[in-house]
TrEMBL record:
PANTHER family per record: FOUR AND A HALF LIM DOMAINS PROTEIN, GH01042P-RELATED
Identification of the protein by name: LIM domain containing protein
Swiss-Prot/TrEMBL keywords: LIM domain, Metal-binding, Repeat, Zinc
Superkingdom per UniProt: Eukaryota
Keyword Transmembrane helix: no
Every LIM zinc-binding domain range: 5-68, 71-133
Length: 207
């Protein structure tokens, strides 16, 4: 019986006459089993070979602590070894390149596609969520580039940035008066203030 998968060493299929050896989840032609660390053939693999992440090495390297590491990957918890060809560092936190995951949704993130936000690595979708805020009037979610109009109580979208009295649509550089989330144009500002002043007088306010 021959294995269904190709040889992990040479990537060629097995014929009915090929002898094969199994180490962990990997299958090799008998002559293809070599240590990924010292590149020497591993004899008697049942005793002398061991899987280390997605590599196969001589067990002696591990026993002799030649492959020991002083840090572990934040995602998988496994130690870094000299066999790890690529280690990603994000805000001082180290990952195997294949282990970088979004800090919010835990989805895998491809190299150079993550976004940094408050000392966390995020995927593009989660980054857009945390950087987005709702309009103080209509509660529409605004992306970062849509947050140019800022009131004292939050961000307002361009559609809602209009005078509540005359409904004049305002531009970001227009003069305006604000009361909580309500905006008044310059023309409606003074009548509103006078009316408010009279109202305050009747309530025993400013005098």
């Amino acid at each position: 019986m021959k294995p269904d998968q190709n040889c992990h060493g040479c990537n060629n299929p097995f014929s009915g006459t090929n002898k094969f050896v199994v180490v962990g989840c990997f299958v090799f032609h008998e002559g293809c089993l070599k240590c990924d660390y010292c590149h020497k053939k591993i004899d008697n693999p049942g005793v002398n070979a061991q899987c280390l992440d997605d590599q196969v090495v001589c067990k002696a390297h591990i026993d002799n602590k030649e492959l020991g590491a002083n840090e572990t990957c934040t995602t998988c918890g496994k130690e870094f070894t000299p066999l790890d060809k690529k280690i990603i560092t994000i805000f001082g936190v180290r990952f195997h390149y294949r282990c970088v995951r979004c800090a919010d949704c835990n989805a895998p993130v491809q190299e150079n596609e993550w976004q940094g936000y408050k000392q966390r690595a995020l995927c593009k979708q989660c980054y857009e969520k945390v950087k987005s805020v709702p309009c103080v009037k209509c509660r529409t979610i605004l992306k970062e580039e849509e947050q140019s109009i800022v009131l004292q109580v939050g961000v307002i979208c361009p559609n809602c940035f209009k005078c509540v009295e005359c409904l004049k649509q305002l531009k970001p550089d227009d003069k305006f008066f604000q009361l909580n989330e309500n905006v008044y144009c310059n023309a409606c500002d003074m009548p509103f203030r006078r009316a408010k002043y009279v109202f305050d007088l009747t309530r025993g306010g400013p005098g």
